């Protein structure tokens, strides 16, 4: 599941069948070493034979290659719940994989968000990043909710007045000294906020909370902010817009900011979503799934994950073999014939493997 993504059931069935075929030999007292040697030998023979009969895929013709990828995606969907909508989803899956960095093909860069409600066909592919609106404080409503070509800053900084974490004891003699401590706290947070505004950022995202003071401060300056954004989402925003997560606001300059064509907060189903579209570095995309019930959407997500992995595999690996059980039968035939030329007990084991494949 982690390596190839699809074909999990087939693998389990095949393993069970192999064990079933050699069970008799185990009962008869054939040593396990002999059986394992036979299995290893059969595996080597099978793999070499597959390499001989595999067909290279032609990548020069883009349209044909895409058609092949769509076929691969559709095949993996046939046995799943979303089989009925496979035309709709195959296009989405292939588009999603094609958006990734073709050298790395990191499937974590495809975000999948689930929103109950609506029909399966209401699912959309966002060219960029989309994530659920995070927790917001007072003052949020006054912030602008959409920008064209915004500058984005990603932080790992808490923007609120903090209570002391440790038991700090401060002894003061005069009221003015106490006031000085309070003023210092306010100065620290305002310095942070000023340095962010000075960079010209329109969208401020942070992994840690952004308090009501900061929210209002940004609202007054027409800046959108969101705190408590999850790590995955923040990483994907960075990949897409070309910014870096900053752990301090000192020395923030324009070069640390990311850009995209359009940012907006929109309503999808019962949720508010922050959507970044048209990202220049877009090596990432987001699939927003809709459907009647949560269990159903979870199942759709698993099916799409399998399909994405298969397409990703097909892009990485340039060869294909015939499907539908044809390759298993061919290896079975080949192993039976080869086993006849092998002396000793291994012959029996290799024949058993051939039978298991059949």
Automatic annotation (TrEMBL):
Protein name (record): T-complex protein 1 subunit eta
Source organism of this protein record: Coemansia furcata
Name of the encoding gene: CCT7
């Amino acid at each position: 599941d982690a390596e190839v993504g699809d074909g999990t059931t087939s693998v389990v069935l095949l393993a069970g069948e192999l064990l079933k075929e050699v069970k008799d030999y185990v009962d008869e007292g054939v040593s396990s070493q002999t059986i394992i040697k036979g299995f290893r030998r059969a595996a080597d023979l099978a793999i070499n034979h597959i390499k001989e009969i595999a067909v290279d895929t032609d990548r020069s013709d883009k349209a044909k290659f895409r058609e092949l990828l769509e076929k691969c995606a559709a095949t993996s969907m046939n046995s799943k719940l979303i089989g009925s909508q496979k035309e709709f989803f195959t296009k989405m899956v292939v588009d999603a994989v094609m958006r990734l960095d073709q050298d790395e093909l990191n499937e974590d860069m495809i975000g999948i968000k689930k929103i109950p409600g609506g029909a399966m066909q209401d699912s959309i592919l966002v060219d960029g990043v989309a994530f659920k609106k995070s927790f917001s404080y007072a003052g949020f409503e006054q912030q602008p909710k959409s920008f064209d070509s915004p500058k984005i800053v990603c932080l790992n900084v808490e923007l609120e007045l903090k209570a002391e974490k440790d038991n700090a004891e401060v002894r003061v003699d005069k009221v003015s000294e106490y006031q000085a401590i309070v003023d210092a706290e306010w100065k620290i947070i305002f310095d942070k906020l000023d340095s962010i505004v000075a960079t010209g950022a329109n969208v401020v995202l942070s992994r840690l909370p952004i308090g009501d003071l900061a929210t209002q401060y940004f609202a007054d300056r027409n800046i959108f902010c969101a705190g408590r954004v999850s790590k995955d989402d923040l990483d994907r925003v960075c990949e897409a817009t070309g910014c870096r997560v900053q752990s301090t606001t000192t020395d923030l300059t324009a070069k640390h900011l990311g850009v995209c064509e359009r940012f907006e907060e929109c309503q999808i189903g019962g949720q508010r979503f922050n959507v970044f579209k048209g990202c220049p570095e877009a090596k990432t995309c987001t699939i927003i799934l809709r459907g009647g019930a949560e269990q159903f959407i979870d199942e759709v997500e698993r099916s799409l994950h399998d399909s994405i992995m298969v397409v990703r595999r097909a892009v990485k690996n340039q060869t294909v073999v015939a499907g539908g059980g044809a390759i298993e039968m061919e290896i079975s035939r080949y192993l039976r014939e080869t086993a006849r030329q092998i002396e000793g007990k291994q012959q029996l084991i290799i024949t058993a493997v051939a039978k298991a494949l059949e």
